[in-house]
Amino acid sequence: MLPLTIDKLGFSIAGREIIKSISCEITAGTRTVILGANGAGKSVLMRLCHGLLKPTAGRIVWTHDGLTRRARGQAMVFQRPVMLRRSAIANVIYALKLSGMTSMECRLRAEDVLEAVGLANVADRPARVLSGGEQQRLALARAWALGPEVLFLDEPTANLDPNATRDIESIISAIHASGTKIIMTTHSLGQARRLGDEIFFLSEGRLIERASVDDFFKLPKSPEAISFLRGELP
Amino acid sequence: MNDISAALSEALRLIVSVDAQLAQIVWLSVQVSLAAVVIAAAIALPLGALLAITRFPGRQAVIAVLNALMGLPPVVVGLLIYLMLSRAGPLGQFGLLFTPTAMIIAQAVLVTPIIAALSRQVIEDAWREYEDQLNSLGAGTFAAAQTLLWDTRFALMTVVLAGFGRAAAEVGAVMIVGGNIDGVTRVMTTAIALETSKGDLPLALGLGIVLVVIIINVNLLAHGVKLTAQRYHG
Fold it and tell me: Cα separation of A154 and A156, whole Å?
């Protein structure tokens, strides 16, 4: 379904233009990190791509899809994991059932993926009483289990401590290694360097700069990116 | 003062000795109100869920009407059901007037808007948290409604029990459609009204005590369910 073509994409709500005519192509393989200040439109851009929001201008076209709406083959992990009020493993099984898998397959797949993110020992605990880090790992497991071609992550470690963040980052790397395209936002420039291959830099709803991670951090071209990077805390 | 204490001790004697007349009235009350609440919940919970997650023109008006219907005066509901069920009414042929079935219908009509309006609120709050996640997983309206009903089950139990309290405590509607016939349609509230006006204070007081104890216990149960659920399920 990749590359993903974004054509003059715009999104306005309540008279405010959040996304202003973004055009680009997102290709398979690389890990794409979307950077930008609060309110730059990072999260909205991902939600538009994932199909949670409808564009008010322009189009989003997945290759081999023919449709402009979101199709299967994508998953998304949110800043705050949304845990259903049931056991950890039941959360994964729920997602798999919705994707049309049989109960037997669901169970086996869910066990495998919980093992892979290190949650096998809490599989039967209610998801909502897990720690924040465990909940986010479960959210990743739930998305990973679907075997998506593209995984969107919206500031997946925003609320987590350094250890939990390290766990999440290594899981994201493992998901990428298993062949899934990663598209994520973060406020941590260190994380962008560690996890990213290419950077999309947004400012006030526009795509200002697109560069490889090395180029972006060494030689930012736009004045907006330069001042954004200068604002980085030591 | 003597009258009251004498009535009170006689009332307690009726309760402790499980007086046949008193027991029969209590049993009928519980049966009628339980049946009414089961029927009301079967209609109102799915309705509340769908209203919480669907968006259509006029939705706000529907919600406003539903909220207003929570305050339906029982006597008016009784009167309307009476007109429907009376021999000349549209449902007169079934001969339901002055039967427990008529009382169940009346209480169900009273309680349905209460359960629907309160569950709509509960489910809409949960939907706000779940919406993006469930849409991301590709849950349709019915799957989402089902998921939310299950995930808010503890809060909804409180809602249903509130409905039971309302049904059991209501007097106007069952008085009109039931007729307060001794041994057939006499429930706690109608019996209390009648016995008080007849001057049989012990029976009225005894029934009053039982009614209050039932209502308090139902509310304690609701509270307990909520606390336990929070502790174990988060």
Answer: 5
